[in-house]
Amino acid sequence: MRILIITGEISGDLYGALLVKRIRELNPSYHFVGIGGPRLRGTDAEILFSAEALSLVGIPKPTELKKYFFIYRKIEELLKKKRVDLVLLVDFPGFNLRVAKMAKNLGYPVIYYVAPQVWAWHKNRIKILKKYVDYLFVILPFEEEFFKNYGISVKFYGHPLLDVVRVKIPKELFYEIYGLDPERPIISFFPGSREGEVVRHLPLFFKVYEVLKKRNPKIQGIVCKAEGLKDSPLWEKAKELMLVLENTQYEVLSYSKASLLASGTITLEAALLKTPGVVTYTLPSWLFFLAKRLVKVPYISLPNLILGKEVYPEILQERSSPFELAKALERTMEKEEEIKSELEPLRKMLGTPGVTWRVAEEVIRLSQGFKNKP
Asked: Are 160 and 139 in contact (CB under 8 A)?
């Protein structure tokens, strides 16, 4: 069985890579070919293109569009040559929904893992999912009923982060390795996983840290650099102000008194570790205006959406001044135990560990069914 897999963002790339590994462990005769980021490239999947080449935010440049459509046409060529038996798409709806339509029209069964957030915006994508996707695996507890109401074949096995979010370095060793003082509080900063997010958020986060440091000189600052981000003068400046760490985000979150989080998957990772936090996000003004008109949900962070209340304060766009963010972080530290208690139910709501195994078993079962169809 040969499967075309396409992942995009860092989180989708992680979930896709885990799924490939689990399927291959269950049935080594399954082979994968496709597009992925660093995690998928770390499996034995045959990588045709890197996912980074498809990353588009805001108005794309002509060169980016040219690359985007070149890759799309190459995927079309692969499908027309009948080199795979099944198409498995992970998140990344801007590109993957186009591929779903193309693949289905060429007669391929299509499985989609990690649904587009159509309950928040782009509701027109529901029609595309219903028409061109054979089976949808969702990762948020309220999504199964939502998609069932539209007649889409869907299953919620839990959130794959349950299999991933765990602390590996003990606190004492972590402090010792990185030269941290166990008597002084850590404030951590997560500016995002895309280059554009880093450019918008890091300068702001520097100012927030400076405000906090003036008020409490004992504070230790750590900024986490997401996997795949390039070095830049901004990161050099970050190293002058704070400790910059990569690949240790769960330890950093777990040992932080509070975290400043650019909205994204990191908010859910923080919540699973019960880390008190403040969520922020900035966009170019025109894009924020557009998003505000299109997005129809009360919160932007996943923990708040799932819990149905604002456990993590959300301070966005023009409200996100260094002073306001610093003040919110100080309030969060004061309410540490209350916040941890409010985050407690979240893990249970997201299911039980073993999520990726269950999805892998179901993908194998479905693929055998598709294969045996006349």
From this structure: yes
Same domain (yes/no): 180, 64: no
Whether 121 and 179 share a structural domain: no
pTM for the structure as a whole:
0.93
Q: At what angle do helices 93-105 and 62-80 cross, to 10 degrees?
A: 30
My answer on whether 104 and 240 are in the same domain is no
Distance CA 177, CA 171 (A): 10
Q: Judge whether residue 122 has pLDDT over 90.
A: no
Q: Is the domain of 131 the same as that of 177?
A: no
pLDDT tens, residue by residue, 212-243: 999 999 999 999 999 888 999 999 999 999 99
Q: Tell me, yes or no, whether 329 and 225 share the same domain.
A: yes
Cβ neighbours of residue 260 under 8 Å, at least 6 residues apart? Answer: 187, 188, 189, 190, 205, 208, 277, 278, 280, 325, 329
Q: How many domains does the chain have?
A: 2
pLDDT, tens only, 40-78: 999 999 999 998 877 765 556 677 788 888 999 999 999
Residue 194: CB atoms within 10 Å = 19
Phi, psi torsion values for 248, nearest 5 degrees: -135, 30
CA distances from 53 to 35, 56, 194, 230 (A): 10, 9, 12, 14
18-39 residue pLDDT tens: 999 999 999 999 999 999 999 9
Residues of the chain with pLDDT > 90, as a percent, come to 83
Residue 164 lies inside a defined structural domain of this protein:
no
Amino acid at residue number 208: V
Q: How confident is the model at residue 373 (pLDDT cuts 50, 70, 90)?
A: low
Is the pLDDT reported for residue 289 higher than 80?
no
